[in-house]
C-alpha cells in the first residue's frame, strides 16, 4: 500500500468474555497497520449489551492487550456512556426522513416470515403524520428503521477488493430498538466518525455489516473510512475457531508461560506473511514488515505444533535472566534455595526442549530434588533385570574414583564400562538417565550429571539400585 498518511484505527471488543485468539489477531493487525504508518491505535469498548457486558471482562481485555504489548493511544471509549449521542443521531435521521418509525408488532413480522417474506415489506415506510402521532400518543412500541433507496453500495476492501451489494438485498434495517437503544451498526458508525477512524479493520464475519454501515455514513453525511476484512482463523475441522475447539483465551497463554512476542508472531502468520522466508519476528519487526498487500483471503488453520515451534524459537532467543524473571512472576518459589548461577545453568540445559515458561517449570523438578517416581515405560524397557544393576554398580565405582567431575570424563567412564561388557553405550545411558532424573528424556545426560554434582548423582544411582529391577 502507498499514500497512507497517519491512519487512525480502533479495536472494538465487546466485554462479554475474555479476549480470544481471533480478537487478539484483529487487535494486532490494527496495531501493526497503524504503527507501520505512524498512526494511532484506539480502544473502544462496545458495552451496550447491559446484561452480558461485565467489568471483569473489560479488565481482562485491557490486561491481555497490555501483556501483548498492544498499547492503545488515549483513553478507551465506552459506548455505554454515549447514549445521548446516539439518540441525537437517530433524531437527526428521523428529521431528515432518512429513517422512520416502524410500529409493526413482532407477530405481524413473524407472520410475514412464515409466508416466505424475510425482508421487511415497508409497511410503515410512508405512514401519514397523523397515524404516527396517534401511535405515539397511544404509547405504541416502535423501532427506527433506516430508509433504503434503490441502487447499489460498493466499497473497495483492502483485502478482498471491490465489493458490490444491490440494495434489493438489504431491507430497511433497524437502527434503534423498541427500548430506544441503538443497534450495533449505528453506534459503530457514529463512534468511527467521532473518533476520526480512517480504516476499519475487522474479521470477515463483519463484511455483511459494511454495506449497511456505509448507508448510515451517507445518511449522516459522514466521511466513509476504508475497510479491511480479515480472513477467519479456523479450527482443524476448517470451521471457525471457537470454544468447541477448546481454543484458549489470551489469559490462558499468559498463565501457561508463553511469551507475548511468540503469541503475536504466531497470530500474525495466521493470515499474513512478509513476502520473504522469515518466520520469526519481534513486534517491532512485524511493525516494519506489515502491509495489507500480503494478507491472505483464505482462512488460516490454527496449529498447536506451529505455535509451539515459534514459541520455542522465541524462547531460544530470550536471555536466561529474562527467562528466570518470567518464571518467578509465575512462581516466586521456583528454584528457591539454589544459587542464581545454578538456576541459569538449569535453564540453559532446558532451553532446547521448552516452548513456554511453564515447560521450564514442569521439566526441572529433578534438578532440585531426587526422583520420587520413575517413568514406568522406560523402567520396563531399560532396566529389565539384575544385569543392569551390575553395570550401574561398576559405573558407580568408576565415578567414585574420579577426582575431577567433568561431563567428558563422566561420559568416558560410562562408555568404558559399556565397552568392557561388550554392549552399546545406550544400554547404560537409558537406565542411568532414569536413575538420575526419573524420566526417559531430557537434556544431555552428561551435562546434567556434571551440573547435579558427584554426590547427588552417586546418591541417586544407589537409590535406583534399591528400586530396580521392578518385580512383576
Written description of the protein model:
With 472 residues, this protein is mostly helical. 47% of the residues lie in helices and 10% in strands. It has 21 helices and 12 strands. It has helices spanning 21-36, 55-68, 83-95, 106-114, 129-137, 184-194, 209-219, 250-255, 260-268, 283-289, 304-317, 320-330, 340-350, 357-363, 365-368, 376-382, 386-400, 407-420, 426-437, 445-452, 454-467, and strands at 8-11, 40-45, 77-78, 99-102, 143-146, 152-157, 161-166, 174-176, 199-203, 226-230, 233-234, 300-301. The strands form 5 sheets. The protein has a 3-stranded parallel sheet with strand order 1-2-3. Strands 4-5-8 form a 3-stranded antiparallel sheet. A two-stranded antiparallel ribbon has the order 6-7. The N and C termini lie far apart (70 Å).
Layout of strands and helices, then pairs:
Layout: E1 8-11, H1 21-36, E2 40-45, H2 55-68, E3 77-78, H3 83-95, E4 99-102, H4 106-114, H5 129-137, E5 143-146, E6 152-157, E7 161-166, E8 174-176, H6 184-194, E9 199-203, H7 209-219, E10 226-230, E11 233-234, H8 250-255, H9 260-268, H10 283-289, E12 300-301, H11 304-317, H12 320-330, H13 340-350, H14 357-363, H15 365-368, H16 376-382, H17 386-400, H18 407-420, H19 426-437, H20 445-452, H21 454-467
Parallel strand pairs: 1-2, 2-3, 9-10, 11-12
Antiparallel strand pairs: 4-5, 5-8, 6-7
Helix pairs in contact: 1-10, 6-7, 9-11, 12-13, 12-14, 17-18, 17-21, 18-20, 19-21
* Helix vs. strand class: mainly alpha
Give the CATH topology of the domain at 82-230: Rossmann fold
- Contiguous low-pLDDT stretches (5 residues minimum) are none
- Helix fraction? 40-55%
Form type: elongated
Going by CATH, the homologous superfamily of the domain at 82-230 would be HUPs
Largest sheet: 3 strands, parallel
Q: Indicate the mean pLDDT.
A: 94
Q: What's the total count of β strands?
A: 12
Q: Please report the distance between the alpha carbons of the first and last residues.
A: 70 Å
Number of helices: 21
Beta content comes to 5-15%
- Biggest sheet strand line-up: 1-2-3
CATH architectural designation of the domain at 82-230: 3-Layer(aba) Sandwich
